[in-house]
Amino acid sequence: MKLFQIWNAVPAFQTLTALKKNPKLAYSLLKYMKQIESEVAVCEQHRQDCVYEVSGAARGTPVQIEKGTPQWDEFNAKFQEFMRTDSDLEAFDLAMGDLIDALGAETGNVISEDELELLEPFFN
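Above: the chain sequence. Below: its structure as tokens.
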């Protein structure tokens, strides 16, 4: 899977982790989330590196790149190229159907179709 898929799925994973589930699944997801957070941290570090590189500002100083500017276009191109990189993150060892069954076993669980679509690449 690509880094952008991980980056974009973070809010869906936050929803997923907030849902009721059995302790075994909850623990497995907790461990998987640590791997996702590690990949997101790499993406965030690279995003910051791109901002400082494009802006020419000293690291640690407040920087804002305005959308629609040549700097934005350069930043966006560099960051998007990086985000198309393949990740080493393996899919979670659970089929999507089994995840849905596990979540459906608990009353009150609600997850949107959009969130499920973002999560789908992460489950076998």
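The chain has five helices and no strands.
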